[in-house]
Structures are given as structure tokens and as C-alpha cells.
Amino acid sequence: MCIEILQFLKYLEKHLTKNTLKGWAAMKVAIEHVQLQFIKEIENNVCSLQVESNFMCFALKTGHMFLIDLESPSNVIKYHFALLSSPQEKLLRVWMDPSATTLLLKTNFAKYYVLTVDSLGKGNESVTPLKKLSKKNRDVISVMWQGKNNFVCGTTEGKVYVVNTQSENSATKAYSSPHSIDGLIFASSPGAEKCAFLATGHTLRYWSNPKDPLTTLKELPPTETEQFEEIEQTSSRKFVFFQDTFAWTIDSGTIFGTVKGSGDVLKSATVLLNVELPPSNHRVKGVALSKYHLLLLRGNEILIINKLNNEVVAQETIWNQGSEKFLELVVDYSQSPPTFWCYSTSNIYEIVLEGENNGIWRLLSKLGKYDEALKLPGLAPAEKDFILEQKGDYLFSEEEFTEAARCYGVSDSVTTAEVALKLMKKSDLVALQAFLTAKLNTARQRKNSIVQITLLSDWVVWNFMQMLNDVDELISSEQDDQNLESWRLKKESLGKELMAFFKKNLEILDRDTVYQIMARQNRKLEVLSFARLINDYKYVLSYWIRSKNWYEALKVLALTQDLECVYKYATILLINSPDSTVNTWMQIKGVNPSELISSLLTYFSNFQKMHSSADSSRSIPNYALKYLKWCIQEPEDAENLAPIVFNSAIFMMIAGFDAKGRENEIIDFIEAHSGCFDSDFVLRLSIKFKRYKTCIYVYSWLRLYEEAVTLAIKMDLLEDAKLVASTPELDGNSKLRRKLWLMIAQCMIQQQNDTKQTIREILQDSNGILGIKDLLPLFGEFTTIANVKDELIKSLEKHNSTMARVSHEIENSIKIKREIVEDIETLKARFQTLEPGASCDCCDRVLQTRKFYVFPCGHSFHTDCLVREILKSTDHALRSKIETIQRSATKGMTLDNLKELDRLLSTKCCLCSDIKINSIDEPLESDEKERHAWEI
To answer: Any one cellular component term from GO for this entry (predicted)?
Structure first.
């Protein structure tokens, strides 16, 4: 597999676009003249320049001082320092503290003054003379600030003083030397090692981790001391320090070095001889440091030397007038990058370095400083890849294969196949894994080909499997307990690394391939962990089932609630772990028991076989039936269950080995769920498995009472037959009920031993349906009268009392008939007397003027008034009939119509019958005028 992946990766990398290493541009140096034409007296008059915190301060010999904020250079602050003895006294030098708040002034009369930068802008005289410092033989040439109010200075006489600017007489001598103090540095800036340097005469002293200047110079011996050839006494600034590097000029050249590293600082310093520089008649008058270059002022030219290889990378000449002399280099290290300045007696120039880091990475690589090269800002991808390749080659040569692999892995300048083959030849699987992992991370960050990323991830997984297999072999063959424990810890660590790799690269892994790789290596636990990580619970479930670990399989099933898996693995789980399987199903919502019928029936078949081979005294629960009953009893799902669920439950109950003794339970179940199952199917089952009580009940439920009684009699189940014949459903069919009881009686008589008792029992159980006369034809020829005498007598007595009751009822009926006839005759002779002047109860007019009706209640109405009242009533049936007759009367009133109308009108009174009662919700007065007349 590894060879195939190598070949494919080699093909991919051949066709992928890579970063190409190109040549680098050289550092550009620009010298920009600072425009100071507005200062008339500047010509050959500049004596000092300081640039700190982006503030420029320069002074003229005449005492004029200028302060410029380089962020807004158009705003120039001018200040005139009043010299005491003008024109003899002149201003020689100005020093400004790093925060650009305090100035130290020096005159040619060895007078020293301190003033604040704020005073320059405000114009007030806040000048403080340093009287104790202003004495003979105190010619200060080097100053190191210790804050805005304190500084340490060195003189040409070789003395070092600690000065407090807030006190006129504060100047404490800290050191004395026979030679001038050319430089004094106490460095404790962040990122730089705490150190101190003292350059005096021909000796350079170095302190590591110094204390305060006074204590260090007076009490502490130097950590290192190095002597060089004696130089001339000059006032030029010869010693500089930047970050962790220093430089010191001597007559023969320039010494520079770094305080980094574990070796000697001064002994490991580099000496750049003047003969290595381009020839010149001028000596070095100024020195400055950048991160990788050394700047030298020599006459009117600027030399820039690469500190890594001592090569001159730039040589710039500044045009100057004949009388103009260049004095010094000045650097503002507060800026990033630092700003460099050069000044002469008449002009100020800014030295601009562009692309200082160009090519530095290559030099650092050649020097083996790969980490420093990689930290360089602005590196092109190809340059970074080249550095990493070089670092990898170096580490590989040092047999640090793992670290080399990590470097190769993040570099695109070397092919995967090339590095992989190198590491495989060394048989270092750990290093190969480190390389592939790093290469995969790099490919993901750079969004390389998906195919390449997939191949690398597959290879990493393959290597993990190989390493795990190797550790397993060592564990199995190891006999030493201590070594065995270490190998086990190693395996545990590899497992954690594998899982961390999976989690980090989950979205890019080809799951099928990873499964295949781990399966081929027989890494079951790793496969399982991977499946869990990607939530592939179907695979986990299938794994546990293949492993026959039913408990874990059911745990996964309960966790996933996956119905597809429930149905898929139902049979195997139910057969091997029925109790837990059923309980798990009960916990999963939405399971359709209809989908499980096949598995449940398979389990039931197996259950029946197990029972037949098992000890009969051992009770084996039927978990399939338990689950079906649970489904049926659940109120939420019972209504939606298919008939097959009930059929299956009844089948298991009927076909079960213990069904014969539990038929009453079966009948109760059928009765509780009538209509939910196939009755024909249940009937056939009952007959097949000889569950006759159940069969009798089903016959009865199907209203096949005759068949039910016949089967009961046949199976000698007379009590069940009696229950069928006594069922309330036969209350409306006495003929069939009598027939059924006759069938039962015949069977009982045929089986009887005590005729009298049998007759008494039949008559009692039939509840009067059968009498002795019905039983007589059923007795045999040899039955004696003595056996039926008592019942015959009871029957005759009952018959006699019945006949007497019937006779009494007939007499009562005749009496009622007579009374009815008399009432009819009375009604025929009934009449109603009307008083003279009787009026219609509707219109109050004389009744006899028109045809009228008089009712038994005493109300009388004209015929037309009665019709009108009925038509206005709510008796819709009567209204409809009268309206029908009226419509037909338009064609001509027939005799039949007149008779029908007369019958309808005489049916009931329109005032005291339901005709008027139905209008109770209507208002008493419907006439609007009449109603308004009664209003108050």
C-alpha cells in the first residue's frame, strides 16, 4: 500500500504548482537631505544632533537649539541658550534622554546644563547648571541615561560619574581609568540580556547581570575583559549597543559581537579590519548598528557591512562642500525599524534602509541559524521552504530523524516521495509518521489537492496501525514486567495520538478507506473508537453483533434510537438476548410492532423448540408475547396497531405450550380486543390446536350459537354450552334459545345417572325455557313415571295457576271493552249549547252569521277565522295540509277536499291546544299602532 501511495503522490506533486525560489533583491540605501534652509546661521555651525522617540534636536555653536517632532516636521521649536561669555563660549554637545524629555548641554568652557524639552516650547528659563560636574578635567564624551533625571557619564580623563539632574551638586565618581571613557552601556531592555559594557582606552570590559552602575563599577569585577591595541584619544562616539549586539571602533578596525549564547562574549566578538573595507584616506568617525548590518561613517561616505559575512553591501557618498565636515552617526532605536541619521557642520541627512532582510535568510541558513532565519519578517513562501529544507537536511545528517521529518513536512521544496523513501530506508516509522502528519497539516493549510490530502491521511492511519501492531508483538513477547508496563504505556499513548489525529482531521478522512485499513490490520478496538467518533453507530452496532456482545449492541441501539437498525437486527438480538432486547424496544419511541412480527414469530418458533427440549419444571417466559401485550396495552399506540399484531399475540397464546391451562386468559384477551383481530384466523387456530373453549367463545362471538353448542356437547363441555345458550344476545330469538337448550338437555339426559336430578337441573338451568313436556320426548322407552312424577305435578300446578291468571285477565279485558263501548255511545250523544249572541273567539263577531266550529273546550270560531289562526300558527304540519287543500281548491273544491278540510279544522282548538302553546315566545301584541298606544 505504501508504494502505491508513494507513486500516486509523486504523480500529484509533479503536476501541482509549487513555490519557486527566485533571486532576491539587494538592500536599497537612500540618503535624504533634511531641508533646513530656514535656519540662516546653520552654515558650518552645527555642533550636535540627537534623535530620540521620534523627536529631533540639533544645536548650533551659537547656542541656538531646534526641536522637531518628526511626525509633524513642519512645526519647528526654536530656542536660544544664553551663553555666558559670547562669543568665546560655544555650545559643543547635546545629549537627549531616550524619552525625549531632558537635555544635557555641554559648552567649550566645560560647563554643563540640564533643561527640559518642555521648556523649549514654552520659552521659560528652566535651565539647571550642574556645578559639581562643571569643573576642570571633567570633559564628558559619553553619556548613558538612567531615566530622565539620572545619567552616567564618562570623561576623556578616564572618570565615570553618576549624576542626578535634579541636584546641582550631585556628581558621584563611580570609576577611574587612566584612559578616556569611549563608551558606557547598561542594558536591561525587554528582550535583551541584562548586561554592562565599559570601553576605555584599549580595554573592553563586560559584566553579565550587573547591578546599578555605582555598585557594579565600584564593587563588581567584570565578567570578561579584553584588551585591544591602544587607540587615539578622540571625542568621536566609538561604542554603540543595540538589542543584544555591540560595536566598538578601534584604529585597526571595528569590533562587534553579541551577548547571546553560552560562550564568552568578548572572545567570540568579530573584528572587522579596515583593510577589509574599500580603501579610503579617512578614518571611521561614527558607527551604528541595525539588526544585521553595521553602519560606518568614514569621511563623507556611508559604509553598510553585513555582520553575518563582513561583506560591504552598500557604499554611499554624500556630496558636500569643501568646508563641510561630517561629525557623527545618530540612531533612534525607539522606532521600528530604527531610523538612522548623519550630520555634518552644515547639514543633516537621513539614511533610509529598504529591504534590510533581503538575502539575510540565505546567510543565516549557511551559518546554521535556521530558526533565526525563519523568524525574519517578509519571507516569501519559497524562501521559507528552502530554509526548512536546509534545516531538515542538517538534522537528518545529525540523525535527528524525527525533527528533520517535521521540517521536511512543512516545506514544499522537497517531494513527499523523496523524503518518505529516505526515512523508510532508515526504518524509522516514528519519523515517517511525523513527516506525514506535518505534510498533511501543511497541505490542509495551503488547501492542496483533495486527493493528496486523502492519500496522506490514509497513509498516516496505516502507519498508526503498523506501530500499534509492533507494540502488540512486543507486549506479547516481553517477559520482563517493567518493560511490559512501559510497552503498555506506549500503546496507550499511541492510541491517544490516533484518536487526536482522528478528531483533528475528521472532515478530510475517507471513512470507507479508514475502515478498510484498520479492518485489514485486525484493529477491532480502533475501528470501534473511530466509528464512535464519527457517530457511525450502525457500524458500532454491527461490530458488537458480529462479536456476539449483545449487551453492548443493545446499549448502542438504545442510544441511537434507529428504527432501521431495530428492524434489521431484531431477530438475532431477540433470539440471543430476549429479555434485554424487549426492554430496549420498549425504550425506543416510534417502533412499529408490525415490522417486528417476522422476528417475533421466529423467536416464538425457537422458544417452542427450547421448551420441548428443556426441563418441564423450568418456566421459560415468552418475551415475544410479553412485548406484543405491552404494545397492545400502550394507550398511545393501541388504536394504530395493525390486526396482524393482535393475530400474532393470539397465535402465541393459543399455540403456546401452556395454552391449555390458560384458555380463560385467552378468552379474556379476545373479549377485551374484539374487532381488532381476524376471527376466522383465530377460529382455525383454536380448532387446529384443540383450544375448544376458545373455539366455543369465538363461535358464540360470531353468533354461530348452534355450532358453539354442538362443539361444546361434542367435547363434553356442557357448562360452556349452557353459557352459550344463556347468552343475552339470544333474548330476541327464543326459538333458537329453546333449540339450544333442547340439544343440551338431550345430551344431559343421555349421560344422566340420576333422572330426577338431571330433570331438575335442566329445568333450573334453562330458566323456564324448557318444561317437563319438552323433556318427555327425550326420555327413553324404559324410563318409569316415578322418575318424572314430581316434575309433572309441579308442571301441572304451574299450568293451572297460569290458566287462572289468564282467565282473570280475560275477564278484565271484557270489562274494559264494555266501558269503552259505553264511552263511545256517550260521545255520540254529546252536544254543545250556545247562548244567544255568542261570538267568535277570534274576531268577537256574532258566531251564527257564518259557518262555525264549536270545540269541546267551549271555544267557538268562524270557519275562516279558524283557518286564518291555524295558518298564522307554528304547527307547520297542519298548516301545510290546509295550504295544500287551498291550492287544489283553485281548480275546484271536491267533496273529498271538503271532508279533509273539515277533519283538519276540527282536529284541535286553536286557542287551548299546542297550536297556541307553540307561540308562547311571540309578543302578546303584534300590531305596531296598538303597541305604541299603550306606551306611557
So the answer is: HOPS complex
Residues in the chain: 936
Do residues 820 and 869 both lie within one domain?
A: no
Contact 152, 160 (CB under 8 A): yes
Look up the pTM and report it: 0.58
Residue 835 lies in a domain: no
The closest of 911, 919, 899, 916 to 856, measured between CA atoms, is: 911
Exposure on the CB side of residue 933, measured as CA atoms within 13 A:
6
Three cell numbers, residue 736: 333458537
Residue located via cell numbers 349452557: 722
Q: How many CB atoms lie within 10 A of CB 751?
A: 11
- Considering all CA atoms of the chain, what is the largest pairwise distance in Å, rounded to the nearest integer? 179
Which helix (H) or strand (E) segment holds residue 326: the answer is strand 326-332
Strand order in the sheet with 203-208: 181-187, 195-200, 203-208, 224-227
| Half-sphere CA count of 120, side-chain side, radius 13 A | 28
Amino acid at 169: N
- Burial status of residue 369 (CB atoms within 10 A of its CB: 0-12, 13-18, 19 or more): middle
Let me know: does 309 contact 322? Beta carbons within 8 Å. no
**Cα–Cα dist 53/481, whole Å:** 67
pLDDT band at 190 (very low <50, low <70, confident <90, very high): low
Q: Are 857 and 824 part of one and the same domain?
A: no
Say whether 202 sits in a helix, a strand or coil: coil
As for how many domains the chain has, the answer is 2
> Domain range spanning residue 792?
788-830
**DSSP summary character for residue 890:** T
Q: What does residue 68 show for φ and ψ, rounded to 5 degrees? A: -130, 125
Residue pair 611/624 in contact by the 8 Å Cβ criterion: no
Of the CA atoms within 13 Å of residue 251, those in its CB half-sphere come to: 9
Kindly tell me the number of DSSP H helices and DSSP E strands found in the chain.
35, 30
- pLDDT tens, residue by residue, 622-680: 899 999 999 888 766 666 788 899 888 888 888 887 766 778 888 888 888 877 888 88
Grid cell locating 408: 521536511
Q: Determine the pLDDT at residue 309.
A: 87
The Cα–Cα gap between 89 and 62 comes to 8
Using the 3D structure, point to which of 797, 830, 863 is the last residue of a domain: 830
> Of 802, 830, 858, which residue sits at a domain end?
830
HSE-up of 568 (CA within 13 Å, CB side)? 13
Using CA atoms, how far apart are residues 228 and 252, in angstroms rounded to an integer?
A: 10
Residue 116 grid coordinates: 527640559
Parallel, antiparallel, or unpaired: how do β-strands 253-258 and 270-273 relate? antiparallel
pLDDT of residue 196: 92
**352 belongs to a structural domain:** no
Half-sphere exposure of 740 (CA within 13 A, CB side): 30
Question: Which DSSP state fits 304?
Answer: E
- pLDDT tens readout for residues 488-545: 888 888 888 888 888 888 888 888 898 888 888 888 888 888 888 888 888 889 888 9
State the amino acid at position 20 in one-letter form. T
Single-letter amino acid code for the residue at 410: V
First-last CA distance in the chain: 115
Locate 388 and state its grid cell.
526548512
| Residue 600 burial by Cβ neighbours in a 10 Å radius (0-12, 13-18, 19+) | buried
Task: Name 77's bridge partners.
Answer: 67
Q: Name every residue whose Cβ is closer than 8 Å to that of residue 290 and which is 6 or more positions away in sequence.
A: 242, 337, 338, 340, 353, 356
Specify the amino acid at residue 68: I
Euclidean distance between CA atoms 246 and 239, whole angstroms: 7
CA atoms of 879 and 863, how far apart (whole Å): 15
Residue 800 clears pLDDT 90, i.e. is over it? no
Dihedral sign, Cα of residue 340, residue 345, residue 348, residue 349:
negative
List 30's β-bridge partners, or say none. 352
**Mean pLDDT computed over every residue of the chain:** 83
